[in-house]
Amino acid sequence: MSGYNFAYLDEQTKRMIRRAILKAVAIPGHQVPFGAREMPLPYGWGTGGIQVTAAILGQDDVLKVIDQGADDTTNAVSIRRFFARTAGVATTTRTTKATVIQTRHRIPETPLRADQILVYQVPLPEPLAKLEPSRAETRQMHALAEYGLMHVKLYEDIARFGHIAISYDYPVMVNGRYLMSPSPIPAFDTPKMHRMPALQLFGAGREKRIYAVPPFTSVRPLDFDDHPFRLIRAPHPCALCGARDSYLDEVLTDDRGGRMFVCSDTDYCASRRDIAEAAGEAA
Amino acid sequence: MSAPLLRTEGLAKSFTLHLQKGTRIPVLRDIDLTLTAGECVVLSGPSGTGKSTLMRSLYGNYRAEGGRILARHRGDWVDLAGADPRLVLEVRRDTLGYVSQFLRVVPRVSTLEIVAEALTLRGTSHDEAVERARTMLLRLNLPEPLHALPPATFSGGEQQRVNLARGFIGGHPILLLDEPTASLDADNRDAVVALVREAKASGTAILGIVHDTPTRDAIADRLFHLTPLQAAA
Amino acid sequence: MNAPLLDAPLLEARDLRLSFGSIRALDGVNATLWPGEVLAIVGESGSGKTTLLNVLSGRARPDMGQAIYRDPEGAAHDVHAMPAPQLRALHRSDWGFVHQNPRDALRMGVSAGGNVGERLMAQGARHYGSIRDTAIDRLRQVEISADRIDDLPRTFSGGMLQRLQIARTLATHPRLVFMDEPTGGLDVSVQARLLDLIRSLVARLGIAVVLVTHDIAVARLLAGRILVMRHGQVVETGLTDQVLDDPQHPYTQLLVSSVLQA
Predict the structure, then answer these.
(1) B21 CB near a chain C CB, below 8 Å?
(2) Which end of chain A is more exposed for a tag (fewer CB within 10 A), N or C?
(3) What pLDDT score does C1 carry?
């Protein structure tokens, strides 16, 4: 596509974003401000993630974009097409084939490798924002690692519901130092971040923040000794591929109460069905 | 030969009323008073000679202007005139008791707790303190139903007995009594006389202001006479 | 002759000076607070008593002078030279601050138990059950029933809110609590209960208190020593009952004689 620089953003902007990324990698979990640009889509549609992706994308990269685990939803399709046209890079829906994966609200079920980068779209980077409205105060709390307040939130959950009732965007400690929002991924995905071989980058366009978890970095969910973090998953196998270890979406099939549970990760589900089919034909 | 417990040397006190153009009222001058263990000294003299002022100065409620106030505190002599407030508070807690004419307490606190506090402040367990407070109040003829009530609504005589109970229960070696029987009837006066005699027998040195003659005769070993000073214009 | 009192002061103000423009809020203030004692700071509005409290507690910085705090190990710290993390940690552990308006200190959207437990969690407590046990204990100390532990502060009365604020402060066994008009703005009956509570807690737990009040009766009931301020200066200091019953300074005489007798 002519008239645009490679991957849409101009090189100066990419350089500025890369500097922010480098700093973010150097201080795992710390939010680095950056000069977010106007992108050709509205805030809340992944402008932060797109800018990070644009800054790190090379001509040989293979890009995968998922939205809630699916490769075929509007947001995923349009962002994938956006980079296919502005950068001319190869795209894929296969987790194993991608070098850069931009995601909204999920981590792929297939374990990621050290030669892959996971880019998260982040709406609200500040995990303390809902508890402490003052930005100056939350910055101070991060600077001094005063995170008692986050535990107050967990305490309130247990007092009210008997358990920690955070099902997504579960607050984590990165490298034992910074409290971080993992973006609105389900709590089910949180353990996948811990010591992940792939580099994890987080971009918040509206809030103009970038942060990162370098490969093989400790990422621990906050909890209490007597109320440890627990995985929550719908107690069903996937209706399509039979997986019992994947995160499930509930799909309504009719207006008479019919419903089914299927893998939220479409690529994972499809791969499993391919393998099962191949095995069936071989038999 | 009994040991002296409290001694004043050249004690002087006057008041300067800054709101009355700095009028200075001398009240006490050159007071040399000695109080020994087991004796009761009663201050005498017409009203306005500074008996209460002397009591309050000894207790540190008024600031002594000149001279010394020596008290035997934990085996040492300490000078209370111009002493560090913390020392005065410590002496009040352990050595120097004071029964004033007025009861000044935190509202809402029960009579029993007010009396018991004199003991708990010195390390007595709460249960024991409450038990001893109950006994002391009964001795002073304050009926049990009143113990749980705050004394704010009590009659003058009842409040005074609460004050007396609080003063006597601590067992301070030196006790100052400012008109302890002023609003008491004969029976209660007798109870006070008995308490004073017991305290004396156990070696307490007592200084009192007592206006009713029978009580004074019953407890005083000697009188200490104060003469009025001429007020300076 | 007088045996020296060997223990060291907990907090010392040394020649504190602070001006707001041409107004001298603190004009050479010296003060000492000893472990376990209650020191009242009285004076009229604008006398500098609240400014002194804020400077002593490190919430405001003086133009000159020092506030020295002695920690449990006996080491002296200049409050205003302390690194921010250390001072903040002190405010969450060894120190407490009771504001006149409890809404300034409490998290109104967090349950009573969460409010009390916050200081513990800030100190690294990570056992829900024991945090809750401590919260129940502290609520009981301030006469709030344990079954209110999960209620939001906004359902509490003014007196209860103030007691909750005190419970929150007590969570970490503070040695020193700053109180700014703790009974101000409360009904007299509620005030009496609070006074009684503060008095017994302070005596039982051996907490040192710097108490700012314009109410002389409150100072008399709670404080062993008193400091009378006017125009940023300490005009008189000493035993509370001595200063109030035999005031020496003209201003103190005026202050004491202006009190209404109930």
Answers:
(1) no
(2) C
(3) 42
Among chain C, residues having any CB pair with chain A shorter than 8 Å are 84-85, 88, 92, 107, 110-111, 113-114, 117-123, 126-129, 131-132, 149-150
What are C58-71's pLDDT values in tens digits?
999 999 999 999 99
DSSP secondary structure code for residue A8 in this structure: B
> What are the chain C neighbours of A148 within 8 Å (beta carbons)?
92, 118-123
CA angle, B211 then B213 then B219, to 5° = 95
CB atoms inside a 10 Å sphere around CB C148: 17
CB contact under 8 A, C246 and B15: yes
C-alpha pair distances (Å), A99 with each of A108, A119, B135, C15, C50: 13, 11, 87, 66, 62
Token pair 């305290």 is found at B199
> Which one of A46, A203, A205, A263 is the catalytic residue?
A263
Active site residue A205: no
DSSP secondary structure code for residue B21 in this structure? T
List the alpha helices (DSSP H) in chain B. Answer: 51-59, 85-94, 111-120, 126-139, 144-147, 156-169, 186-201, 213-219
Backbone φ and ψ of C168, nearest 5°: -60, -40
Gap between the terminal Cα atoms of chain A: 48
Residue A49 has pLDDT above 50, yes or no: yes
| Whole-angstrom distance, CA of residue C233 vs CA of residue C13 | 12
Q: Which of A49, A88, A238, A258 is catalytic?
A: A238
CA distance A108 to A201: 15
Between chain A and chain B, are at least 3 CB pairs below 8 A? no
Phi, psi for C20 (deg, rounded to 5): -110, 100
What Rg value do the Cα atoms of chain B yield, rounded?
18
Taking a C-beta distance cutoff of 8 angstroms, is the pair B29, B37 a contact?
no
B76 Cβ contact list (under 8 Å, min separation 6): C1, C3
By the CB < 8 Å criterion, does B79 face chain C? Answer: yes
Whether the CB of A152 is below 8 Å from some CB of chain C: the reply is: yes
- Decide if C196 and B16 are in contact by the 8 Å CB cutoff: no
For the sheet containing C208-212, what is the strand order? C95-98, C176-180, C208-212, C38-42, C225-230, C233-239
Asked if A238 is an active-site residue, the reply is yes
State the residue for tokens 């039982």. C204
- pLDDT at site C262: 52
**Pairing mode, strands A209-213 and C11-20:** unpaired
- Tokens representing A129 are 């924002």
Q: CB of A144 within 8 Å of any CB in chain C?
A: yes
- For chains A and C, tell me whether 3 or more CB atom pairs sit within 8 A of each other: yes
Amino acid at B86: R
**Annotation marks residue A242 as catalytic:** no
Express each pLDDT in A190-218 by its tens digit: 999 999 999 999 999 999 999 999 999 99
A129 touches chain C (CB under 8 A): no
Contact assessment for residue A70 and residue A105, using Cβ atoms and an 8 Å cutoff: no
Active site residue A269: yes
Contacts of C123 in chain A (CB under 8 A): 148
The closest of C80, C98, C105, C71 to C17, measured between CA atoms, is: C80
Half-sphere exposure of C26 (CA within 13 A, CB side): 27
User: For the whole model, what pTM was predicted?
Assistant: 0.88
| Nearest Cα to Cα of residue B189 among B207, B206, B214 | B214
Tens digits of residue pLDDT in C198-217: 988 888 898 999 999 999 99
Q: Could you tell me which of C1, C78, A182, A143 has the C-alpha nearest to residue B77?
A: C1
